[in-house]
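Closing statement on the iron/sulfur cluster sub-project.
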Amino acid sequence: MFDKLTRPLRDLRISVTDRCNFRCRYCMPRESFEKDHPFLPHAELLTFEEITRLAKIFHTLGVRKIRLTGGEPLLRKDVEVLVEMLASALPGVDLALTTNGSLLAGKAQTLKDAGLHRITISLDALDNEIFRDIIDVNFSVEDILASIRAAEEAGFSPIKINMVVKRGVNEGEILPMARHFRGTGHILRFIEFMDVGSTNRWESGDVVPAKDIIAAIQREFPLEPLEPNYHGEVANRWRYRDGQGEIGLIASVTQPFCGDCTRIRLSAVGELFTCLFAGEGHDLRGLLRQGAGDAGVEAFIQNLWRRRKDRYSELRQEKSASRQDKVEMSYIGG
Ligand code: SAM
Ligand code: SF4
Ligand code: SF4
């Protein structure tokens, strides 16, 4: 099944909650996500049974990778039960989860035992002052490092570490992070700050281009490029020439990869988004709750995918992206 730009559907990202215990300034800035923010009521969320049913339908349509995300996915009560349901329903599917790491230390083994294959942990700095300034709540770098250790002990390998780089905020942490994770077997991935949603006051000048990140690391540790692991891989891979592991760069702003984008996103309330920068979703939950059969749901998704022509990041680069109201990343699933 191909979209208008002949891209197949391969990856499904499922947001299991729009809530988060962090207030990262680039994602859920406190001024827009305070206590009176209308977060989704629990009854509105897709149930685990609904998510699992949809995941099976997506699998028949070509999905081979599923990532649980949010918001902070570990805030969803009993998320390990969902992992278990997905892992047993879809044994051939690569099942991953992205977390801020704050609640992982006590849960890593449970998630592994439930059948989670891979884990990505976000960490933007090793310096506590910079870290706290970004996340805007009172967790420490040590909490996240303890979670990384717990994930290691539970047998996740390699673990990916996501670092969003924002100019003037944490570019000075690029080298300390590279030094820290070299030789650990973990894959540090530098992510260009993106203009997701409409609350994070993104400006192009805030983006540290991936090529500058590579150049900064090269000066201390010689690197060489690696081939992608598979067609459509989002991160550009590089390895340390001295054999101390690899890093990744997600250059969605300076080197957009829309041409290979095989991802679809399912929000916590069951709306489908065909692009991270979409303005609106397509209601699948309504269809499920009206009693649609699998064939009807399948036809709905097929119809949506076949009409898809999203390429926002390329349009941004060509300076022809429209300034639409984009859905927040914490809602749509990062
Ligand atoms: N709460 C989890 C976490 O932080 O890992 C999962 C959801 S979060 C939206 C997923 C990823 O998106 C994180 O690695 C986060 O750093 C990244 N992210 C959020 N806002 C971003 C932005 N404006 N630009 C680039 N990456 C962003
Ligand atoms: Fe929460 Fe993740 Fe967004 Fe930070 S990036 S506010 S941890 S959802
Ligand atoms: Fe895919 Fe949209 Fe991102 Fe392009 S901008 S890579 S189409 S999610």
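The chain has one domain: 11-332. With this model delivered, the sub-project is considered complete and its resources will be redirected to Aim 3.
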